[in-house]
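Hello, quick one for you while I still have it in my head. A protein chain has come my way and I'm curious about its shape. I'm sending you its amino acid sequence along with the backbone structure tokens. I'd be grateful if you could look everything over and explain what you see. Here's the protein in full, and shout if anything looks odd to you:
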Amino acid sequence: MSMIRLSICIPTYNRRPFLPNLLNSIFSQDDNMVEVVVSDNASTDGTCGMIKQIAASNPRLHYFRSSENLGADTNFLKAIDYAQGEFCWLMGSDDQIQPGGIERVLRAIKEYPNASGFTLNVVGHTFDMNNPYYPEIAMGQLDGDFLKSDQVFENGRSAFYRIADHFGYIGAQVIRKSCWDDSIKEIGQKIDYFKTGFVHVAVISQILRSTCRWCYIHQRCVGFRTGNDSFLAQGRLYRLTIFVVSFSRILNEFWNDDPKLCSDITNLNLKVHVRTFVGHWYLDTPLGKLEPFLMFKCFLLCSSHYWKMPYYWTHIAPFFIIPRWLTFFARCIIRSVKRLLAS
């Protein structure tokens, strides 16, 4: 049997409609140095039977099923535990690998033999995965300075500073398994503290603190599906908590010796994720459909973390405080004035 160079690790829960597309995108790029590991978090939608049927004709597909739902973060960790490859590519179960993506990752492993891991460029797709729309996704977007080519970071702190926001997307991370395992041991029992949706970012942070080579690959190797946020299914407060709490814990634990890094990453998270999430929720919800008690709980959550930050009070807190009907009325007046001025 050929050495397994790369394990594509797929944690999943009730994603039966989407898994065939992902698996087809992998097996269409056949390579005997690659295995596929599916860790099923006790799905109830027929995932088990479907995967076993596919595995019957694909011996490199290995399926593991938990007897009970262990939570998303634990399933992320288990998917890598099962892997046998030198490197592990975490993969969202509703994503797909772009044509040439596997070849590019295997080539990167050869090009950078001392790398602890890789962060890959990505491409957004419509929900049906038929139409890519090529957004700029977080790639070093601090100060608007996007990465535009492959880059090797010889310093873990520099890597985190430049691409921290992008570490949250699991499908873009390829990690040397020995580094992953060592970091899990270093974190120890505290790993449960980081199980807030981004546990893999905590492990990567530990890797970056311990080793000094991380690579960014500019080729778009993986595509994600818009409009299919599994965390949102557990409620808006839960989804907002992931944005607000997860990175705060990671920054405080691993990067608190660098106040500028913590401040800049917190501001980026606030402006890119928190404001976008709360703003769309507020502006896209029909009049009278907002849930005041839920909004109040979200307001308390955000205010407890960002109360010292003026940007929060000027750009996000008003969504929680100003009644939706008043905003709607003000927008109508502004539009009317603009039309009058333009005529």
Q: What stands out?
A: The mean pLDDT is 89. The two ends are 75 Å apart (CA to CA).
